[in-house]
Specification:
The chain is mainly alpha-helical and 234 residues long. The chain has twelve helices and no strands. The chain folds into two domains: 71 residues, no CATH class; 146 residues, Clp, N-terminal domain (Double Clp-N motif, Orthogonal Bundle). The longest helix has 32 residues. Keywords: Repeat.
Amino acid sequence: MSPLDISLADLITRLDEELPHADGLARISEARLRAQTLSDLGDQLIDHYVSKAKQNGASWTEIGDAIGVSKQAAQQRHAPGPFERYTNLNRHSIVLAQEAARTHKHGFIGTEHILLGLLGEPRGLAYEVLIAKTESEQRIRDAIAEAMPPAGEKALRGHIAFRPESKEAIEQARRASADLGHDWVGTEHTLLGLIHTEESPAARILRNLGFTPDELRETIKTEITKRSATRGKR
């Protein structure tokens, strides 16, 4: 086993089990998508420790040496970006949104992909809030599927850009976090960001499912308070 307690054989076995009837070419395409997801997670892992090193006073020259690149390259690749204060769960939901866009062969990451990413992270507060209201994950997935654009002809490689409304939702998530007095941006803030991007597909989906911005905000405030109280009793 590798230091991550996962091997190539594990990845092959899982893919084969999940796509038992796929032909060889379909498995190649799926393997490439999963490899990209692993690469994205790896970048986020490095970003996490770069951020900690910067907080502890490390210079970009020292960080570059640790990574094996120049100071300029380290700064360009790992300088704080729009996801700087995102929790690990929320970062993972964004990776899943990108994976959803690739799976559907879309050349963009829309708010519908971001909502799908939140559903893919059941440990997040957004997932709990969504399921508590709708009582059905499948109901939400069906609503997203109905709003999803037709699949493209070819999955893109490399970077997939966010649509303008997705960028707005990301900014709205940061604003929601600041408005609530939080120093993190969690999946719950992303959910608020989506519903506040009023003309986006995700906002329409959420409204059709019975969510409103004010009610959603109050629900999230209540749930965060409950979680804080629970941690305080441990």
